[in-house]
Backbone:
């Protein structure tokens, strides 16, 4: 805990006052409140009161004071506690994320932040550009931008933080919560709030597709169809991804892709091209198990072939990252990826449309500051 950053916690979680540790220590050595300045008395007064009169031993653990009081109430030092200071937080929430899960989680988040005495605000987003602007506003105010929603919201808030030098905190509230999964941030609200307040700040890379930033994974081809179906589906939770995967497979026709990775050209027939800044998408599918958010590179996963039955057999392997050892899957690595296809596809990232093909996807090393578990 910094020596110059402590708080006094008194009668209520919002009744906080910031002081220096040395100042607090000198105050604690005073024999009674009448020796404190008027400002010091005002600082301590919300933390408890006694009836007007002379001090008793219960007030300070010392003999009664011989000097008459000026009529102010004596504070209760026994109710003083020290906790580490943390940044004020702007909670940016998409209440409809996760089929309404974010709204339910918000109740717990507000209660937990209040219990911790945090300086926080809560704003509901209108759309992803609004979320990005809210993150920029938080950075300008010196506040941590805490994204409460799914990976789409987290990506938008991360983009706002990246372009303004802000600090991101992730409060899982969506269907997939894949960035939180990879960063080691639990779905449990209490654990997530603890990381937002008490974790350590680190950096992660971000990607860009045709100039639009994203946080985790950009993909196209079969993935384009599956993402569109998942966003339109009324299936709750992570089951929507499985439903979308099966629905997309029924109508899928093989595509031809032209890919260039750092100048090396590749052509293939197959299902998908996945450009991964992170490891997982789709609610725990580790499509790029060796991707690293801090290595300054993108993992490019390609899935070749035209057998839908074989592709279906690969799906269970993705949840453990075992698919990369099969003959249909190839993993390459680079910093700049160009993709074209024989028919139109929308590139999706973090569950939302990113750009259309042809696309140039690049990485921005250490682009975003984010709160991580202290043990990370």
Residues:
């Amino acid at each position: 805990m910094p020596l110059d950053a402590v708080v006094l916690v008194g009668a209520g979680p919002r009744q906080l006052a910031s002081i220096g540790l040395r100042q607090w220590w000198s105050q604690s050595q005073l024999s009674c409140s009448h020796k404190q300045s008027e400002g010091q008395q005002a600082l301590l007064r919300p933390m408890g009161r006694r009836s007007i009169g002379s001090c008793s031993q219960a007030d300070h653990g010392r003999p009664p004071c011989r000097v008459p009081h000026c009529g102010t109430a004596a504070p209760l030092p026994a109710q003083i506690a020290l906790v580490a200071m943390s940044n004020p937080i702007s909670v940016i929430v998409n209440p409809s994320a996760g089929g309404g899960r974010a709204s339910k989680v918000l109740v717990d988040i507000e209660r937990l932040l209040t219990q911790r005495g945090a300086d926080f605000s809560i704003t509901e987003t209108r759309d992803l550009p609004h979320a990005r602007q809210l993150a920029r506003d938080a950075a300008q105010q010196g506040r941590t931008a805490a994204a409460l929603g799914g990976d789409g919201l987290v990506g938008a808030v991360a983009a706002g933080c990246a372009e303004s030098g802000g600090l991101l905190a992730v409060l899982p509230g969506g269907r997939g919560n894949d960035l939180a999964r990879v960063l080691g941030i639990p779905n449990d609200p209490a654990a997530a709030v603890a990381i937002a307040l008490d974790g350590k700040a680190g950096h992660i890379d971000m990607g860009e597709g045709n100039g639009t930033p994203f946080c985790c994974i950009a993909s196209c081809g079969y993935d384009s169809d599956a993402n569109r179906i998942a966003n339109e589906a009324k299936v709750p939770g992570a089951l929507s991804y499985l439903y979308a995967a099966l629905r997309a497979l029924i109508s899928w026709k093989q595509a031809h892709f032209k890919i260039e990775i750092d100048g090396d050209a590749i052509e293939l027939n197959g299902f998908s091209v996945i450009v991964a800044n992170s490891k997982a998408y789709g609610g725990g599918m580790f499509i790029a198990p060796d991707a690293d958010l801090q290595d300054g590179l993108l993992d490019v996963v390609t899935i070749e072939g035209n057998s839908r039955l074989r592709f279906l057999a690969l799906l269970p392997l993705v949840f453990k990252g075992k698919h990369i050892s099969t003959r249909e899957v190839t993993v390459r690595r680079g910093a700049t990826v160009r993709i074209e296809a024989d028919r139109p596809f929308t590139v999706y990232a973090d569950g939302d449309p990113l750009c259309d093909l042809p696309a140039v996807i690049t990485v921005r090393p250490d682009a975003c500051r984010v709160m991580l578990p202290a043990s990370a």
Remarks:
- The first strand starts at residue 6 and ends at 9.
- The chain has three domains: 6-83, 87-198, 217-364.
- Residues 97-115 form the longest helix (19 residues).
